[in-house]
């Protein structure tokens, strides 16, 4: 009889799609909340503001893209339409857009300029399109509005090149007496898959989930494999439960534990659903002069980075432009400092060219030394008895180290449930850290020490163990 229960073996078999892997590899992206709210000093507009208010006379998206690239980011997601319904592109399906403003004589297109700027800067480009629309008269009508929304999605997904992410949320503040619109989520998803098959659908979608807060941290154990119902918490009431286990009556996306053995034990449908941490550099999501002194300091942003990218999640950092279209100097200086700090922190991987050994591997093609080959398909793979496996990194000389970066080969699933990291100090192994989830990336920070040897011990796994990343800085 296998030592691994069937539900654990099932969890071990769940793997990401290629689009999820590509999304995870972006790691750190910019969110740009920009639109009518920028000019009305609000967060949720009512949809009745004069389009002529929109006039970012100094807008230069190339400057945005250059700044974000220098800050260490790999992509940009733009709020093409927020809840007020004002469109940052000249949509054919509404007059409530940039074409009705005097900006660029009504011929401007923020989405187009931003897409081109990202391409020039080497950034991936994504779009946010709010399902809630407080301006559109058909909102609340059902099919008519869903068709309207799909038309706008089609414009964005066919006219602006490759889209790496479509970011959807379920926000709606209509209240009990407001309009009730049943969103055709499955129809939206199918259209996105048809028009941009490589795009990850995030937050309200099947590819990426919200981490559960907007404070910039994820869980101590951020599992990528979770029960299916965490991807459909808005749809559960209307879905049949005949072929899957019944979800709990109340699904809590903010719960501290989503994917441990306890959480997956009684669910017979699991999915790969990685987490994204979204947080604003300021108090609000849109620019407000009153927030100028609430810009998060560099130390806070670096902690957020290490507690998201370094804990098996991606980081989406919001930077809201001012009404003239430029980034505030405080935000800009902090972002440039963050980019410089990331360059310093990850300047040279001292593990490159080193020696790695192990006490357990599946075959000669998956020994520990394969971890150091610069190829995502080269990795260490344990044998049939992964618990107690040890991987030793020999840097071949002593160096001052304060960070170790680990990563699993997630194409074969998320397997490691518990590990320990040691450093050899005065010829004795000293434990640096005990951890649970590694996943795509785990960054372990500690007080700087002069050391030559590190040892990773695998304590618990689902069915086997892999390591594709073991870096020292």
Structure description:
Helix 9 (298-306) links the parallel strand 9 (275-280) and strand 10. The chain has 473 residues and is α/β, with parallel strands linked by helices. The chain starts with 5 loop residues before the first helix and ends with a strand. The longest helix has 17 residues, at 329-345. The chain has two domains: 6-345, TIM Barrel, CATH 3.20.20.80; 355-472, Galactose-binding domain-like (Jelly Rolls, Sandwich), CATH 2.60.120.260. The radius of gyration is 24 Å and the shape is globular. It has helices at 6-13, 18-26, 36-40, 61-70, 110-121, 143-158, 185-195, 261-264, 298-306, 329-345, and strands spanning 28-32, 75-81, 124-129, 165-168, 200-203, 209-210, 225-227, 270-272, 275-280, 313-318, 355-358, 380-381, 390-407, 416-425, 428-435, 442-461, 466-467, 469-472. It has an eight-stranded parallel beta sheet with strand order 5-4-3-2-1-10-9-6, with helices on both faces. Strands 11, 13, 14, 15, 16 and 18 form a six-stranded antiparallel beta sheet that branches.
CATH class of the largest domain: Alpha Beta
Strand residue content: 15-25%
Query: Helical segment tally?
Result: 10
Number of domains: 2
Mean pLDDT: 93
In which order are the strands of the major sheet placed?
A: 5-4-3-2-1-10-9-6
Order of helices and strands: HHEHHEHEHEHEEEHEEHEHEEEEEEEE
Number of strands: 18
Query: How would the global form be characterised?
Result: globular
């Amino acid at each position: 009889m296998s030592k691994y229960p069937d539900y654990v073996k099932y969890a071990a078999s769940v793997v990401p799609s290629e689009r999820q892997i590509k999304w995870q590899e972006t790691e750190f992206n910019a969110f740009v909340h920009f639109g009518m709210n920028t000019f009305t000093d609000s967060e949720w507009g009512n949809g009745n503001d004069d389009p002529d208010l929109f006039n970012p006379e100094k807008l230069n998206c190339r400057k945005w893209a250059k700044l974000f690239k220098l800050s260490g980011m790999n992509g940009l997601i733009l709020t093409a339409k927020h809840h007020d319904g004002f469109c940052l592109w000249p949509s054919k399906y509404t007059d409530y857009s940039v074409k009705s403003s005097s900006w660029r004589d009504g011929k401007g297109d923020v989405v187009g300029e931003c897409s081109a700027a990202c391409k020039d800067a080497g950034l991936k480009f994504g779009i946010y399109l709010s399902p809630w629309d407080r301006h559109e008269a058909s909102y609340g009508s059902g099919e008519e509005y869903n068709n309207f929304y799909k038309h706008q999605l089609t414009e964005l997904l066919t006219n602006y090149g490759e889209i790496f992410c479509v970011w959807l949320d379920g926000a709606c503040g209509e209240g009990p007496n407001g309009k009730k619109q049943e969103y055709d989520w499955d129809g939206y998803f199918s259209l996105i898959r048809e028009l941009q098959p490589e795009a990850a659908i995030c937050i309200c979608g099947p590819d990426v989930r919200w981490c559960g807060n907007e404070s910039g941290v994820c869980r101590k154990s951020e599992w990528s494999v979770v029960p299916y119902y965490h991807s459909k918490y808005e749809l559960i009431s209307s879905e049949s439960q005949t072929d899957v286990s019944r979800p709990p009556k109340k699904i809590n996306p903010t719960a501290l534990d989503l994917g441990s053995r306890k959480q997956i034990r009684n669910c017979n449908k699991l999915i790969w659903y990685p987490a994204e941490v979204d947080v604003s550099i300021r108090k609000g999501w849109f620019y407000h002069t009153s927030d100028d002194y609430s810009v998060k300091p560099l130390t806070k942003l670096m902690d957020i980075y290490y507690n998201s990218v370094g804990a098996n999640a991606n980081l989406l950092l919001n930077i809201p432009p001012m009404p003239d279209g430029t980034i505030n100097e405080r935000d800009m200086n902090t972002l440039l400092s963050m980019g410089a700090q990331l360059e310093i922190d990850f300047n040279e991987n001292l593990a490159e060219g080193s020696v790695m050994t192990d006490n357990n591997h599946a075959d000669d093609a998956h020994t520990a030394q394969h971890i150091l080959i610069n190829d995502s398909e080269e990795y260490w793979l344990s044998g049939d008895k992964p618990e107690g496996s040890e991987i030793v990194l020999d840097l071949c000389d002593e160096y001052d180290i304060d960070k170790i970066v680990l990563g699993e080969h997630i194409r074969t699933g998320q397997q490691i449930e518990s590990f320990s990291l040691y450093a050899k100090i005065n010829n004795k192994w000293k434990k640096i850290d005990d951890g649970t989830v590694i996943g795509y990336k785990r960054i372990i920070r500690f007080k700087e020490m002069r050391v030559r040897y590190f040892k990773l011990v695998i304590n618990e796994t689902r069915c086997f163990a892999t390591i594709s990343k073991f870096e020292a800085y």
